[in-house]
Amino acid sequence: MGRRNRWLGRRMVFPLLLLLLAVQGYPMAFAAYISLHDYRLTALHQVQWIGTAQYVGLLENPSYWTAMRNTLIFVFGAVGLELLLGFLLAYLLWRPVPAQNVFRAVLLTPMFVTPIAVGLMFRFLLNNQLGIIPVWLRALGVEIDWFGPDLALFSLILIDVWQWTPLMVLLLLAGLEAMPSEPFEAARVDGASEFQILRHLTIPLLRPVMLAAVLIRMLDAFRVFEYVYAITRGGPGERTETILFHIYRVGFLYFRLGEAAAMAFTLAVVIFILVALLFRILRRQEALV
Asked: In this structure, are residues 179 and 206 in contact, taking their beta carbons and an 8 Å threshold?
């Protein structure tokens, strides 16, 4: 009976595997194919096999490395701030406060706005000539060019933090509410302070949830495109050109799809390495708990 149930389960999963193969398998196979060819939309009749030449060429492409560096700075900066603020807000909302559900609803609102709309909104709010925020700051004697060469990437990080910290709050708050109450009651009976409970009990118990939340947000942050497209278009210069925007520029503005596909696969390798490291850390933390 058990063998029959396993066979039935495999047969039910088989259509899903075929669908995934059709939806994801063919595009990935085609992308791998064109990444090994000189494939340009302006010369489709001149497609030539060049092997790994495009991958080797990326090593000497300064724009590619600038975009990759900007992406890594964005991912680690945004996700790090979101983890810190998300934990602080989740910890505050975990405690009984008046109108707690109202605070939670208001706090979660930003993540329901589409990223392109958020980008356009902050493009006007932070505009150095027309934005209301620079006007207020100038009234206080503070002059800040949010999208200048020095602050443009940091401004995009803050915009991402504004929109996606609520998701981190939601994940961490769920983890806090799922923790058993007995260890906390025992610690309070033993005379532990709130800081000691936070440091030696809350954070260690919540660490697997934190790592899972970081993994989810990191995977999404690597795909940042809308903010760059709506606000800076990669400028000034290449200060905010992320790898996904660079792939878009090379593939759909310069029509070099083969080179863009090679960049996409190198990005996939970087993400795979980081995800593998996080999964390894996560499994160790779960084993300790």
From this structure: yes
Segment 251-255 long-range contacts (CB within 8 Å, at least 24 positions apart)? 255/40, 255/41, 255/42
Helix (H, G, I), strand (E, B) or coil at 44: helix
Q: Which two tokens stand for residue 118?
A: 């958020």
Which residue is listed with tokens 């697997």? 208
What's the distance, Cα to Cα, between the start and end of the chain in Å? 36
Element (H, E) at 49: strand 48-49
Q: Whose structure tokens read 């708050």? A: 173
**DSSP letters spanning 14-39:** HHHHHHHIIIIIHHHHHHHHHHTEE-
* Unique residue bearing structure tokens 């047969």: 11
DSSP helix/strand/coil, 56? helix
Q: Is residue 249 within 8 Å of 61, Cβ to Cβ?
A: no
Q: Which amino acid is at 212?
A: A
- Residue 141: count other Cβ atoms within 10 Å of its Cβ: 6
pLDDT tens for the chain, residues 1 to 289: 456 666 766 777 788 888 888 888 888 889 999 999 999 988 888 888 998 999 999 989 999 999 999 999 999 999 999 999 999 999 888 877 776 778 778 888 888 889 999 999 999 999 888 889 998 998 888 888 899 888 999 999 999 999 999 999 999 999 998 888 888 888 888 888 888 888 888 888 888 889 889 989 999 999 999 999 999 999 888 999 999 999 999 999 999 999 999 999 999 999 899 888 888 877 776 666 5
* Residue 176 host element (H or E): helix 152-178
